[in-house]
Amino acid sequence: MKKIYTLVLLFVSFQFFAQSDRSFLDPALAPFYHGVASGDPLPDRVIIWTRITLDPPVDPVTVSWQMATDTLFTNIVASGNATTSVDKDYTIKVDVTGLQPDSWYYYRFEYNGNRSITGRTHTMPSGMNVDSIRIAVVSCSDYQNGYFNAYRDIALRNDVDYVLHLGDYIYEYGASSSLSDRNHEPTTEIITITDYRIRHSLYKLDADLRLLHQQLPMIAVWDDHETANNSWSGGAENHTPGTEGDWEARKKSGVQAYIEWMPIRQPDPNDTLRIWREFNFGDLIDLYMLDTRLEGRDEQVGATSSALNDPNRKIISADQFAWLTSNMKQSTAKWQVLGQQVMMAPLRVLGAPLNTDQWDGYPVQRQQLYDSVINNNIQNMVVLTGDIHTSWANDLPLTGYNSSTGANSVGVEFVTTSVTSENSPLGVPSSLIGTLFPHVKYANLDNHGYYILDLNRNRTQADFYNINTITSRSYTVSVDASWYTLDGTRHLQQASGIAVGGIYPPLAPYNAGTTGIKENHNVITIGAFPNPFFSQVVVQYYTYEPEAMRIIVTDMDGKVILEKNLGMSVQGLNYAHFDGSKLAAGMYIITLQGQKSKASKRLLKVY
Question: 31-122: same fold as 2-24+522-605?
Fold first, then answer.
């Protein structure tokens, strides 16, 4: 299909694609339709994020922002201006400094009298005797596979401090949803920077994800689907160079869009691939966010490959490994927590790993990590994992592991199931999991949801929550299991009940300022990509009610260069493509014209 699609674009000047409403574009949010987000909190600072969508665009554009201790913004503690442009896809990130540790704040953006919704965020604690922290852990949110009910549930329960996203925040696949209102845009697999930006835009327009970002700061790391399935440093299982181009170019595009659209702080602005970083929650937790995907992973091999035990094979680079083990050795925090992508506990049958995309495919480096933990007498290593769309609680066994007592376990691992992504088959019956893998204390292969990680000075506990459906927006939630590890024990025990959070400040209200939408302004142009352009241009726009539309391309003198009827738009997101390869270099105006409304974008054509 991808080949046919490309050929069609080469031979027609315009193609029109209209999809049914999927992520409602709330006019009250203009021009901040994608909401707000915060992330990467530290004791004295936090990243705040938004995206501004103006029609027609202003480039560059400057917005103001405020941060306060209350929802009415009567006590503003920080404020300023931030500038963005087409080069950043009009996304805005501010690293707000000078904040107080372990404090909740409310923030908002403003442009020309129009305010964003109010966001709520939380700085990290610092110093000694930090009592407890509660973190919601999620991964694998395929938009096409269902509704993000887990995100909504976490946001509205209001009893956690932070959200940890362990990857697969977006998916790269083309449209294939069985739900009429959940198809991917673009409809084809994403490869270029334009593709990745549109896909991030689609996800951020989801009301449930927008609510989660509005209410809680997120610490995130990518997995494979932010670029392509089963990726490694030099390629991916779901990347074919002959038809999908150069891997390094595709990887660069995925990484750039991720950095633009996520509330993440770059540890090294000169190294866009450096996403591994550390967060210190006072003397309670040192959290290490790892990249087991793009930065240093060697290519996956088969389960019976002679290269499986090659001592030079790595799932993380030598630099990242040295950083991790050195920091863990020097840490004085109670808990050493690793946030990462793929299962660390072994799953081997008759001596062969079931999945070599996991740490089982890199056993030598895993053992080197274990050796470092043992040799440095690190008592409380807790590994947090996503990726496989199922829930697990595991001991991490060494030679001589005793499943009855937990002796010779180097640490514990909690694996979160998916928010929506299809549950992964294991390849062995569920009834045999305990027999084949005695270090596995809990496994649920059939549900979607999340877990709440509750850490205090005596124990770390994970409470696994199941969402009963992802195909309806009405859902129920239930506790499936609770497991914990005590300080200094290095193994799991089953809890008799869930951990209970304390009292948390009010949720941020869903309030925005004046909309800025003119009377009869039915169409909003969200973006035109790429800009500057060479040939093909994609226009992404939203109509609040169906209307017959046409697209008009004019030069700066107002001369009409191209004009085409697009037919009747639908309520929701719409797309128009046009071929500008024959246009001379220069500035052009693209106008979407209806019977009662219009919207324009300015684009630059380059050679």
Answer: yes
Q: How much of the chain is helix, strand and coil, in % rounded to 5?
A: 15, 35, 50
Amino acid letter for position 159 = D
Residue 147 corresponds to which amino acid? Answer: Y
| Cα gap 545→393, rounded to integer Å | 48
Q: Give mean pLDDT, residues 571-592.
A: 80
Fold of 132-494: Purple Acid Phosphatase; chain A, domain 2 (3.60.21)
Res 198 pLDDT > 90: yes
Report the alpha-carbon distance of residue 177 to residue 447 in Å, rounded: 19
Q: What is d(CA 189, CA 172) in angstroms, rounded to the nearest whole number? A: 6
Measure the CA dihedral 492/376/348/432, to 10°.
Answer: -10
Backbone angles phi and psi of 150, in degrees to 5: -60, -40
Does the pLDDT at position 6 exceed 70? Answer: no
- Residues, the chain, total? 607
CATH pick for 2-24+522-605 out of 3.40.630.30, 2.60.40.1930, 3.90.550.10, 2.40.30.170: 2.60.40.1930
Collapsing DSSP to helix, strand or coil, 365 comes out as: helix
Nearest to 256 by CA among 207, 297, 199, 203: 199
What is the 3-class SS of 81-93, one letter each residue? EEEECHHHCCEEE
**Radius of gyration, alpha carbons of the chain:** 25
pLDDT of res. 600: 75
Q: How far apart are CA 163 and CA 104, in angstroms?
A: 14
DSSP structural state of residue 374: H
- Whether the per-residue pLDDT at 226 is higher than 60: the answer is yes
Interacting residues of 6 by C-beta distance below 8 A, sequence separation 6+: none
Per the DSSP assignment, residues forming a β-bridge with 94 are 48
Dist. CA 356–CA 285, nearest whole Å:
30
pTM above 0.90, yes or no: no
Question: Percent of the chain beyond pLDDT 90?
Answer: 75
Provide the greatest CA pair distance for the chain.
81
pLDDT at 14 exceeding the cut of 80:
no
Two tokens, residue 192: 């270029």
Which residue bears the tokens 């697009």?
Answer: 566
Q: DSSP assignment, residue 331? A: -
CA distance 205 to 155: 16
Neighbours of 565 (CB within 10 A): 12
Residue 432 structure tokens: 């045999």
Rounded Cα gap, residues 255 and 273, in angstroms: 7
Residue 231 has pLDDT above 90, yes or no: yes
Give me the percent of the chain exceeding a pLDDT of 70. Answer: 92
Residue 248, phi then psi, degrees to nearest 5 = -60, -35
Digit-coded pLDDT (tens) for 441-478: 999 999 999 999 999 999 999 999 999 999 999 999 99
31-122 is classed CATH 2.60.40.380: yes
Beta strand pairing status for 162-165 and 218-220?
parallel
Average pLDDT over residues 311-316: 97
Task: Give the residue extent of every domain in the chain.
Answer: 2-24+522-605, 31-122, 132-494
Return the exposure string of 378-407: e unless at least 16 CB atoms fall within 10 Å of the residue's CB, then b.
bebbbbbbbbbbbbbbbbbbbeebebeebe
The distance in angstroms from the start CA to the end CA of the chain is 29
